[in-house]
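queue> pop job 88
queue> type: inverse folding (structure -> sequence)
queue> payload:
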């Protein structure tokens, strides 16, 4: 396995121990009232960047609390805590998300579920793993079997912005959930516990690692209102599913109002 992956496998559990012990001392809002950051997000990000800079000085970083995309041939894409609200309220369903790109193409992704101590790892064209166990390729499901992960913001976005009604999805899907962490949502599809994820407001650091992991087990990720390039650094709408056929069925079921 890649030496950088081996390094992170040894290093990230140390960050986990710190995360579980750090008390939250400060919570502030960013660009919108519902977009929050804690002092722990900042501390974890600084620790990650400092450690990776020391180990790999020729690499650059796109990190959530930095907010600036600096393209380079060796790029880390980091979300220090994906699911900050979950971290604050639930102390569960939050993770560290790290993707690594070379020559502007994804090489590997790691998503570390802190509470569950679950580490998802995928290297392009080499499969995806959960805690060292190879994840199987996803089977093709139909909507009646599918668990859909979607939040109210996305429901309203589709209806008000694109005149698409998600009511039939609610009627036809097996169940629906909202985890509150994009990276974990994509990994849950990869692990077979969920099947569809819809979100209208994601940044590259939210989904970069999870996308690599999901695609390595046969899942699909699309950006219906954007270019769909691998480096969408602005807020994008993302649709993901365990198979292309299921995603098409979902899209066909979202009918015009």
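queue> result:
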């Amino acid at each position: 396995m890649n030496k950088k992956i081996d390094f992170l496998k040894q290093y990230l559990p140390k960050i986990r121990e710190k995360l579980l012990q750090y008390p939250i001392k400060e919570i502030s809002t960013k660009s919108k009232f519902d977009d929050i950051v804690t002092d722990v997000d900042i501390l974890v990000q600084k620790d990650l960047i400092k450690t990776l800079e020391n180990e790999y000085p020729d690499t650059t970083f796109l990190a959530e609390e930095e907010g600036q995309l600096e393209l380079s041939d060796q790029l880390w894409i980091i979300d220090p805590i994906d699911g900050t609200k979950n971290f604050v309220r639930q102390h569960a369903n939050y993770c560290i998300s790290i993707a690594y790109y070379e020559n502007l193409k994804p090489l590997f992704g790691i998503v570390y579920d802190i509470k569950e101590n679950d580490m998802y790892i995928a290297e392009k064209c080499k499969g995806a793993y959960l805690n060292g166990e190879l994840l199987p390729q996803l089977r093709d499901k139909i909507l009646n079997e599918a668990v859909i992960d979607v939040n109210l913001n996305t429901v309203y976005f589709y209806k008000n912005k694109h005149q698409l009604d998600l009511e039939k999805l609610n009627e036809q899907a097996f169940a629906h959930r909202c985890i509150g962490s994009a990276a974990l949502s994509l990994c849950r599809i990869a692990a077979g516990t969920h099947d569809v994820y819809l979100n209208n407001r994601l940044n590259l650091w939210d989904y970069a690692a999870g996308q690599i992991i999901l695609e390595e087990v046969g899942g699909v990720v699309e950006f219906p209102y954007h270019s769909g390039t691998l480096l969408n650094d602005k807020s994008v709408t993302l649709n993901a599913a365990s198979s292309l056929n299921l995603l098409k069925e979902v899209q066909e079921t979202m009918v015009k109002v």
